[in-house]
Amino acid sequence: MGRPVDLARPPGVDPAALSRYLNRAHDDFVATGSTDPAVRRLVQESWRRSVEGGLDPEQVMATIRLDDAELAAIRDQHPLAAGMPVIRRLLVDGASDAGLLVAVSDAAGQLLWVEGDAGLRSMAEQMHFVAGADWSEASAGTNAPGTALALGQPVQIFGAEHLARQVTPWSCSAAPIHDPDTGAVLGVLDLTGGDEVVTPQSLALVKATVAAVEAELRIERLSPAPRTSVASRGWQAPALEVLGGHGATLRHGSTTTRLSLRHSEILLLLSESTDGMTTAELAVALSDDEQAQVTVRAELSRLRAVLGPIELASRPYRLKNAVDTDVAAVRDDLERGRLRRAVARYRGAVLPASSAPAVALLRDELHMHVRSRLLASDDADALLTFADTAHGRDDLEVWERVLSILPLTSPRHAQVLAHVAALDDELG
C-alpha cells in the first residue's frame, strides 16, 4: 500500500475560508520567512526548498526550456507518448468539458503536453504553464507536478499553497507515472484548474488514469510492433524477449511461450548469428565445460517442438525466419538517438540467470552500450530514469554524471548528491 495522500482540501472544509487563511499565511511567509504551523508540512517544506534555492515568490516564472523542435523530438522519443491516447480518453476529454487542463511532464519536470479547455490554456500561458516549460520546484516553486516529482508521491496544491504569487489563483492535483518494469519515474500527470481539482475524487481520477497508463505501457511492451521488412502481407515477425527475465518469452501470433533457460540461450544466440552456428560452436558458447555435442543436439531437437512457425535449419544451425528481439530494439533505439526509448526498453540485463559465456558477453556488451550513450549525453531525464533502476542504482559514474548536469536548484539535487556520497563511501 502507498502512503496516504495529504489532501489539500479535506472533505467538509469551506474552500473560501481555507483560501483566505492560506493567502494570509502565504503573505506572512513572503514577508517574514516564517510559516504558520497549521500550513501543511509538505507545503512548508516545499516553500523552504524553493526559497533556499533562490526563488523569489513575487517574481518567479517557470522557465521555458524547449523550443518547438526540441519539444517534438522529446515527445517522439518519450515512453509516455504511448500513454497519451489513454490520458486523452480518460482525462483530457472530460477536463475540456469541465474547463480544466491536463499536463504531462517528464522525469525532470519539463511539461511535454498541456491539453484541455482552450480558454484556460490561453490564461495558463501567461504564467508559462505551457508545453516546453520547466515546472520542477527548482524552476517554478511549489506546485503539484513539481512537488509530486520532488517527493515521488501524489500531491495536491490548493491556491495560495503555491509559492509563486501569480500561480496562487490556481489549484492542481498530480501523481507520478512509473515505468511498469523498472519502477523508475517517467514523469507526472497533472490536473489543473480551480478549487474543484483538489477534491479527493479529482485526485482519485488522476491516480486511476496513471494506473491505466502504466498498464498500457506494459501491454505495449508485450505486443511487439510488426516488422515492415517482411514480404507477407499482415505478417508479424515472432518476437523474443530476454531482458530482465530468468527465461525468455517467445511470441508468435496470438501464442506466447515461456522458454527454459537453455532454450532461451540457444534461441537468443541463433537470433544474433548471421551465418548460423555449428554444434561445436554452440557447445562452446553455452558452457565453459564444452558440454557434449550430443547434449546440444538433443536440446535443439526439443527446442524445435516449441518454436511454432519458426523454422530451425541445420548444418549449421540457423533460423530461417526473422525474429525480433528486445536486445536488437534497444540497439536500434541507441543508434537512432532515441535514448529515452532505449532506456525504457532496457528493463534489465540479458538473461540475468544465464552463465553461458556467449550470453554473458552479450549481456555485458549491451549494458555498456546503453551506459556509454547515457554517460555521453546531457539528457537528465534519461539519466535519472536509468539511475533509478536496479541496474543503475549502484552505478557511481552514472550518478556522478547526473550530478554534473543537474542545476543546484533542482529538486533532486540534494538526493542525488547524498546518493553519490553514499556510493563513494561504499566503494572506499
Largest sheet: 5 strands, antiparallel
Average pLDDT figure: 87
Number of domains: 3
**Which architecture of the largest domain does the CATH hierarchy give at level 2?**
2-Layer Sandwich
Overall number of strands: 13
End-to-end Cα distance:
36 Å
Beta fraction of the residues?
5-15%
Whole-number radius of gyration?
25 Å
Spans of at least 5 consecutive residues whose pLDDT stays below 50 are 224-235
CATH classification, class level of the largest domain = Alpha Beta
* Count of alpha and pi helical runs: 17
The outline comes out as elongated
State the CATH superfamily name of the largest domain.
Answer: GAF domain
Task: Tell me the helix content.
Answer: 40-55%
Can you tell me the CATH topology of the largest domain? Beta-Lactamase
Main β-sheet, spatial strand arrangement: 3-2-7-6-5
The helix-strand sequence is: HHEHHEEHEHHEEEHEEEHHHEEEHHHHHH
Structural class: alpha+beta
